[in-house]
């Protein structure tokens, strides 16, 4: 029988994942002239159809609470940008006995950048030299100075507001002007001033001035729903479109990567993926691979890419893939502020998130724990939503006009505080392949092991004490909670803050790291990782801006390699 | 249902005169008193029809009527706004309950507990009790401390607490509830004005 051999298409680069890291890589690589194919495990995004911007709760039958009220107290309610999930049907993960872990995943073009809080903080010089400074964890193989030019590039391109402040280890960036503070923010700022806690305009990836054809924010406070005018940053609206405009990006949606296939020369040559719409398996070939599926999903893909040359998974001769898993330390407290009762009704919306925040203000001082945290806060006269009045009802009880009036007079007078702190990696927190469970696509799933360390508990206690002192200094009343944080409560569940990272870490020692200083696998030179998996530390600053800066840097290195002919 | 002058004023013509009046800046004076009265009656009747015509997804008709009364009692109409029924709270709770087994047990069972307790105390289901009797039982189950003193009331307290919580969702996410709170926003602004000047803030 006659064999017809059609030459297979080989792309320059295959990117797995279209979020912050993958989107940045797609933009830089295609604009640099490479032909790129991108695999995304979810569908394409259609903002005009998919976003619920400006929809009122009463315009939805479930009022935002979703089927059966399951999202009454969840962030991923019906208003949120599509396909961000705490649980995905048919795509489970497991936890080891004694561990709890929550894993938020997005299956949509743009990934979690559709859902994130838009907080865009640079890591500081000390964050890259953690071990040199306090002896714990490890140093990064790069310095702040090496990454700083890429922070500049990212901020200049995506648009971040903020102010020059010279706060130690919280570097200033390329900023647009910040929005004016809300009443809740001026109130708390005064209290922080009296306590000598630094409180400054926040740094968010939301435009206050037009940029690259994107209009400025229109202050509806609904960034989490997705922004039809793309005035905030999402990879789907800001990174993917310019990549597509080059004509060199091929996007394959609904493609769940299963395995990276290694060729005879020991180089990666293809990705096997499941087409979710047909449930069939295909391969896509490329000369280089950028894994950017999110830290844990990237570790999973590498661990599932086993071959005779790489029996423990691709890029894992060190055995570190899945290890060094961290999340931010989270703690929260709310206060009631009676002086806000006097405020006349007014538009309090602002941008979708905080206008001010408290960076770590005790850097370099003596503390009873290592590293630091920042404080986010919000509240006030937000759009009423489900779950918003249960607390008042439980406090005041009863029924009738009196209860109704109590709900009205207390509306808008609550302010919530959230600490976000640095976790030091420990041996008991990691993910691995579950030996017994596969997902609906037949791909082995992750099993999480999780334990906070003493340093994290001490930090969470300090957060609680700080929140209390701020509430009291501002003339408010602390709502609920114990006087001091204990081990069992008052600290977030692992994964819950959605800053999980470190699972495919960089390092100069190939025995103790999976990637070199260019996020290139020590073991396989044409495999790169471009999400938060390469991070060596997880400082209190939210990771997304650093994901993009690092991906930009990795992508420029990859371009340079391509120009030198190293890819072919 | 349409009243004495129904034939002379169609709903459409009245609404049209209303909107013209609004454009002229004098809504009330522009409409003949009879027309205003008719319109008021027509809207009331429409609402009653709608409520009467709603087919509950989970609750029996009797339970749904009880649910409506309870919701309206928790968040009643007053001089400042309509109440929980106008806000659609009973429909919202019925929808969620039809999809949630825990609510089915707690709310469905809670309503049966309420009727059984009223039968025992007053010889009637809650709906058929006098207003004084209804107030008496609600005053017992609307406060957690009563459950601490009287264990038999705890089921009722738990039930009422969940119902109040869901009714607050239903009321304060409605158009009238949001207006009642005075929320201003969900709009397009060229610039964010910041905090209005208020002494002490």
Q: Can you give me a brief rundown of this structure?
A:
The complex is a heterodimer of chains A (568) and B (201). Chain A is of the alpha/beta class.
Model description:
- The complex is a heterodimer of chains A (568) and B (201).
- Chain A is α/β, with parallel strands linked by helices and 568 residues long.
- Chain A has two domains: 9-53 and 68-83 and 106-118 and 121-159 and 234-317 and 503-568, 3-Layer(bba) Sandwich (FAD/NAD(P)-binding domain); 167-232 and 330-421 and 453-490.
- Chain A has eleven helices and 18 strands.
- In chain A, strand 15 and strand 16 form a beta hairpin.
- Chain B is mainly alpha-helical.
- Chain B has two domains: 1-44, no CATH class; 54-181, no CATH class.
- Helix content of chain B is 64%, strand content 0%.
- In chain B, helix 5 (89-98) packs across helix 9 (154-172) and helix 6 (101-122) packs across helix 9.
- The radius of gyration of chain B is 22 Å and the shape is elongated.
- Chains A and B meet through helix 5, helix 8 and helix 9 of A and helix 5, helix 9 and helix 10 of B.
- Helical residues, percent of chain B: 55-70%
Estimate percent helicity of chain A: 10-25%
Alpha-beta content class of chain A: alpha/beta
Largest sheet of chain A: 7 strands, mixed
Query: What is the oligomeric state here?
Result: heterodimer
Biggest beta-sheet profile of chain B: none
Write the layout of secondary structure elements.
The complex is a heterodimer of chains A (568) and B (201).
Chain A: E1 10-16, H1 20-31, E2 36-39, H2 47-50, E3 84-85, E4 94-95, E5 105-106, H3 130-134, H4 144-158, H5 183-195, E6 200-201, H6 235-245, E7 249-252, E8 255-262, E9 268-275, E10 280-291, H7 295-304, E11 329-336, E12 356-357, E13 373-379, H8 390-396, H9 401-410, E14 414-421, E15 430-438, E16 444-449, H10 454-473, E17 477-479, E18 527-529, H11 544-563
Parallel strand pairs in A: 1-2, 1-10, 2-7, 4-16, 10-18
Antiparallel strand pairs in A: 3-5, 6-12, 8-9, 9-10, 11-14, 11-17, 13-14, 15-16
Helix pairs in contact in A: 1-6, 1-11, 4-11, 5-10
Chain B: H1 11-24, H2 27-30, H3 33-53, H4 61-74, H5 89-98, H6 101-122, H7 131-141, H8 144-149, H9 154-172, H10 175-181
